[in-house]
DNA sequence: CTGTTAGCGCCTTCAA
DNA sequence: TTGAAGGCGCTAACAG
């Protein structure tokens, strides 16, 4: 647990000033070949690496991109893969940060994380499903699955409306007429669009909208439990459910099973996202795929562009229905 | 892109000194109730959050745990989930860092990352499959799937030997006699143990070891390609392959398919890890499961203990054979 | 070519 | 109860 060597240790060992060491390390000129070699030798010997913290405090740039999340859940992790891969051959390192929300923080985790890391530790940030549209950011920002629609910061998202419509229309094509919706985090544009897609598909099929068939899921397993029960408690219970994401779809299935319903025989369920769990689940989940790694990569591209003086962009990527085993034709 | 508010901004706005703001924020006493309220009001108004960088530079602790990885691949991501979950109800935030290896860095990414973040940004570190046993660390460390065996830093790993033996014995039980091994990163203890388990199983069945049936995979997709080809190039080619991890198992299957071999009909393949891809792959992968989230949680437990003055521990978790579709009986 | 100085944002003595 | 001063490790002026 001995202290890491600092630039001062290097300077003392090499018998030169701290400034000279700094110059040597950073390849500035104004250092003789002999001194340079000597200093670098000491650096290697001591195993010195400059402190990211001190450097970033002094310098503007750190060459680190931050991926800010509320929580490391599958959705964020898949994005992270894409981000990481896209940053592979750039000089940037990736730093993923999950900030716990302090109790009385009204501004949300993204504000806190941004404020704590931005301007110092990270050169730019990718926000995953932020709960708010960050204003006054100190670094360039790209939001994935943003709070608001295309305005303000740069955004990357899928065509949620089309995806949701496709999912619902697929259930309709299977003969279902009582179709429930376990909706997502209503503060996110994605959840709103998915509900809208659901409604539009119903309307297109001439089915009147029944408010009782929509319950809150909040995109999270824990949050979906009550909603799942609620949907199954409806007198004329739905024969199919379009859940706003895979996590809540999986919870929907779990709750249904708990109540003795078989999926897909007694209840069809469609999710959204296509996280890895979707295909490893039993039964495998019919879902709407978001190209998560590609979305992460797109966010990187935009962010690097912005760091280079470019304009914020708004990218929409396609969503694709993936039919698997959690859906079946409605047997009246 | 306006600058984030600093403590100085708060002080100026509130009409007090920086020191007073600091005390107010950190709940130190020596601040009158009136001043406290006023200052906190300004803090809220300005949306001020202390800079993690500046704070960590000045203070020792940051309440941030670092998960240091070479790359965000599935193995690391699954661990990250466990770490994140385990840290949920603690005051610690999680910071995952993937440091790119600078060209001529002999000491490895973990040294660099540790040196750059340790002692300043993070209070403790969890190292994922480090390439070297870090000495002289400035913060408590737990290594997952460590370089060396149980000595030095705290470690978390599975019983690789048993897992590998179980995998190989399963292939033997299916009637296979020519069994290849696509081995892992030979610098890691896990890869060595897995090869040993493979050999012991063969020996136990009275099958002489054939060096031609062992090829290097290096745990990575790209690294496994050549090894996969090599195994299939052997005159009397293996009818089954035990790959040292899932990523190389999947690559093994891809290469086999490319050469017109069907899995599992013509070639059985077993992996190791049970990353999400294992079950979503077609065919689903027979593999040896590592309880990755649990391992991440165990690392957290140990690390928090060490931060609390506890001793380093060495935890071994069980590995379990999961039989799926990539293996079949050998039809002579 | 080298060293001295100042200061990034923050917290902690120590004085007033 | 408050504020002034120093310093964490580092880099960018500037001076020698």
Characterization of the model:
The structure is a homodimer of 332-residue chains. Chain A has 332 residues and is α/β, with parallel strands linked by helices. Chain A contains twelve helices and twelve strands. In chain A, strands 2-1-3-4-5-11 form a six-stranded parallel beta sheet, with helices on both faces. In chain A, strands 7-6-8-9 form a four-stranded parallel beta sheet. In chain A, helix 9 crosses helix 10. The longest helix of chain A is centred in the middle third of the chain and has 16 residues. Chain A is elongated and about 85 Å long. Chain A starts with 6 loop residues before the first helix and ends in a 10-residue tail after the last strand. The relative contact order of chain A is 0.12. Chains A and B meet through helix 4, helix 5, strand 2, helix 6 and helix 11 of A and helix 4, helix 5, strand 2, helix 6 and helix 11 of B. The structure holds a DNA duplex (16 and 16 nucleotides).
Order of helices and strands of chain A: HHHHEHEHEEEHEHEHEHEHEHEE
Q: Please tally the helical runs of chain A, counting DSSP H or I stretches of 4 or more residues.
A: 12
Q: How many strand segments of chain A?
A: 12
What structural class do helix, strand and pairing data of chain A support? alpha/beta
Largest interface: A-B, 55 and 55 residues
Indicate the low-confidence ranges of chain A by residue numbers. none
- Please tell me how large the radius of gyration of chain A is: 25 Å
Distance between the termini of chain A: 69 Å
Helix proportion range of chain A? 40-55%
- Summarize model confidence as the mean pLDDT of chain A: 92
What percentage of the residues of chain A does DSSP assign to strands (E)?
15-25%
Oligomer: homodimer
Question: In which order are the strands of the major sheet of chain A placed?
Answer: 2-1-3-4-5-11
Q: Sheet bearing the most strands of chain A, described?
A: 6 strands, parallel
The rough form of chain A would be described as: elongated
């Amino acid at each position: 647990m001995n202290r890491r060597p600092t630039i001062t240790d290097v300077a003392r060992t090499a018998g030169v000033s701290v400034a000279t060491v700094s110059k040597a390390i950073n390849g500035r000129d104004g250092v003789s070949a002999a001194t340079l070699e000597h200093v670098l030798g000491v650096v290697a010997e001591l195993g010195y690496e400059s402190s990211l913290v001190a450097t970033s405090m002094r310098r503007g740039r750190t060459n680190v991109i931050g991926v800010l999340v509320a929580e490391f859940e599958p959705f964020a992790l898949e994005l992270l893969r894409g981000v990481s891969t896209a940053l592979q051959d750039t000089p940037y390192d990736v730093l993923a940060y999950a900030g716990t929300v302090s109790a009385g923080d009204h501004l949300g985790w993204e504000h806190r994380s941004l404020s704590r890391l931005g301007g110092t530790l990270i050169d730019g940030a990718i926000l995953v499903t932020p709960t708010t549209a960050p204003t006054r950011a100190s670094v360039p920002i790209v939001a994935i699955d943003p709070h608001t629609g295309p305005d303000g910061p740069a955004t990357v998202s899928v065509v949620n409306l089309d995806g949701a419509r496709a999912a619902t229309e697929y259930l309709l094509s299977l003969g279902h007429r009582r179709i429930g919706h376990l909706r997502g985090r209503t503060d996110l544009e994605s959840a709103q669009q998915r509900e809208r897609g659901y409604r539009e598909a119903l309307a297109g099929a001439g089915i009147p909208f029944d408010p009782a068939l929509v319950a809150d899921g909040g995109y999270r397993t824990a949050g979906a439990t009550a909603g799942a029960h609620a949907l199954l408690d409806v007198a004329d219970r739905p024969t199919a459910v379009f859940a706003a994401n895979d996590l809540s779809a999986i919870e929907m299935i779990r709750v249904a099973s708990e109540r003795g319903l078989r999926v897909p025989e007694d209840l069809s369920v469609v999710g959204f996202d296509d996280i890895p769990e979707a295909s490893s689940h039993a039964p495998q989940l019919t879902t709407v795929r978001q190209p998560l790694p590609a979305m992460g990569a797109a966010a990187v591209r935009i962010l690097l562009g912005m760091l280079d003086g470019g304009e914020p962009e708004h990218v929409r990527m396609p969503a694709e229905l993936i039919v698997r085993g959690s859906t079946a034709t409605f047997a009246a």
